[in-house]
From TrEMBL:
Keyword Transmembrane: yes
Compartments where found: Cell membrane
Gene: eccD
Sorted UniProt keywords: Cell membrane, Membrane, Transmembrane, Transmembrane helix
Ranges annotated as spanning the membrane: 125-143, 149-168, 180-198, 210-229, 234-255, 261-282, 320-338, 372-390, 396-416, 437-457
Topological type in the membrane: Multi-pass membrane protein
Presence of the UniProt keyword Zinc-finger in the record: no
Database matches in Gene3D superfamilies: Phosphatidylinositol 3-kinase Catalytic Subunit, Chain A, domain 1 (3.10.20.90)
Domain EccD-like transmembrane: 121-457
Protein name: Type VII secretion integral membrane protein EccD
Organism: Amycolatopsis panacis
Length: 459
């Protein structure tokens, strides 16, 4: 078997990537992969790394099928500079055969992922405990409503939950239960802060009690992140959202700004800050930023090898922090949209634009969780604008919005069909980029109108 005309030379220099290492080798063109794989496993130090359920190794290109062991390097058209992945072979599993129908049903039932087990029971118990603790805080607040005992009792309960969460996480090593107890204290801290100001009411959405409650949650979130030292993304989301909300409501309270104007500016600022969330997550996750070297000498001088496991852990931590930051900003946007939905047409239009921005911005993220967070909060914001439209009773606008929703559904179905077949169009991607740019530009006149900038400029 002769090599194609474009494959001149006796060897092919390639990079072999294993689950734990990578090596650069030269492969003889006339050697088969059956001859090369054992040698590559030995050179890469992968001997013994294949689990019992996946014996043997295979070579493959990224995303491709395993290369047949009977092929030669030339027949597989391997070129210089290619990256081949050396992975454990998948063992084919034969179909299960049962002699007894009852035995087959029992076996499938026991192996089903929906079976109730210790792991699910533990999570359910922890979730139930967190809900009951929060309900207990509400009952304590209701029992002491209207007196100075309301913030004192709920504040002490929040402090007890904080200390208990830290003890469970650090002393007993149960970070899940500790984080659940501390997260239950977030709601109790909110109630405590809201009842600080007279008349010490149970729950109030006025600027004063709301600002005090969000400030209390901010302080509590920082202390919980330090005390529990686990589930940091949850506390990042809670602390970030409450801090921004406290600042916005504080400005409304102190400067006398209209709530609609504050909500409009806050929603747009949170949308702008979402673009800086990835860089902030890299900083908080202590990931080294890549640098482009001037030449090969500077590249070798500044090369700093790092352990794969350490970098994988840092990367996972940074991704979790990014999710927490996006959730925090999403909560701020959703809260601002709820305020805007109680206003007029300009306010509802701004909420719709912000929701559209978050939906389109989700395309920029490769991570499933981050993309779902942006899309979810974008849809939630659009639902707020849709609620205003339904309440307004404008038939023409409702009909237009209904047709737009149907058109969007058709586009989503077409997108799902094309993605399932692996068909992607750069032209449609460019159209969506232009649409996102136009929506971002439209935010400026809308927020200026809601904030009253035109009235100030026009005198």
């Amino acid at each position: 078997m002769s090599a194609p005309a474009g494959l001149a030379g006796s060897t092919r220099r390639v990079t072999i990537v294993t689950p734990r290492a990578r090596v650069d080798v030269a492969l003889p063109q006339q050697s088969t992969f059956a001859e090369l794989v054992p040698q590559l496993v030995r050179l890469a130090g992968a001997t013994g790394q294949a689990p019992a359920e996946h014996p043997g190794w295979v070579l493959s290109r990224l995303g491709g099928a395993p290369l047949a062991l009977g092929l030669t390097v030339a027949a597989a058209q391997v070129r210089d500079g290619e990256v081949l992945h050396l992975t454990p072979r998948e063992r084919p599993r034969g179909p299960l055969l049962f002699d007894d129908v009852v035995d087959s049903i029992a076996s499938v039932g026991e192996s089903a992922s929906t079976t109730w087990g210790p792991k699910i029971a533990r999570r359910t118990g922890i979730a139930a405990a967190a809900v009951l603790l929060l309900v207990g805080g509400v009952l304590v607040q209701a029992a002491t409503e209207g007196s100075v005992l309301a913030p004192i009792c709920t504040g002490l309960l929040a402090l007890v939950l904080l200390l208990a969460g830290g003890a469970l996480s650090r002393a007993y090593g149960d970070s899940g239960a500790g984080a659940a107890g501390a997260l239950a204290g977030v709601g109790v801290a909110l109630l405590a802060g809201m009842s600080v100001l007279p008349p010490n009411s149970l729950f109030s959405l006025k600027a004063g009690p709301l600002a005090a409650g969000l400030a209390a949650v901010t302080v509590y979130g920082v202390l919980a992140a330090v005390t529990v030292a686990d589930r940091l993304p949850f506390f990042v989301a809670v602390t970030g959202a409450s801090a921004i909300g406290a600042i916005a409501t504080g400005i409304v309270l102190v400067a006398g700004v209209r709530p609609m104007a504050a909500a409009a500016v806050t929603a747009v600022l949170a949308t702008a800050l979402a673009a800086a969330a990835p860089m902030l997550a890299l900083r908080l996750g202590r990931l080294p930023l890549p640098r482009v070297p001037d030449d090969m000498e500077s590249f070798r001088a500044n090369e700093q090898p790092s352990l794969g496991a350490e970098m994988a852990g840092r990367t996972t931590h940074a991704q979790a922090l990014l999710t927490g930051l996006l959730v925090a900003l999403g909560l701020v946007v959703a809260g601002s949209a709820a305020v805007l939905a109680t206003g007029g047409a300009w306010e509802a239009g701004l909420a719709a634009l912000v929701g559209s921005t978050w939906l389109q911005r989700s395309r920029s993220y490769a991570g499933r969780t981050q993309r779902l967070v942006l899309a979810g909060f974008g849809l939630l914001t659009l639902l707020g604008a849709g609620g205003w439209l339904i309440a307004s009773g404008q038939r023409v606008a409702l009909l237009t919005a209904g047709l737009a929703v149907v058109l969007a559904a058709v586009v989503c179905l077409a997108y799902a069909t094309r993605v399932a077949r692996g068909v992607r169009s750069p032209y449609w991607s460019r159209v969506l980029d232009v649409a996102e740019f136009l929506v971002l530009l439209a935010l400026v006149p809308f927020v200026a109108m809601v904030a009253g900038v035109y009235e100030v400029v026009g005198g």
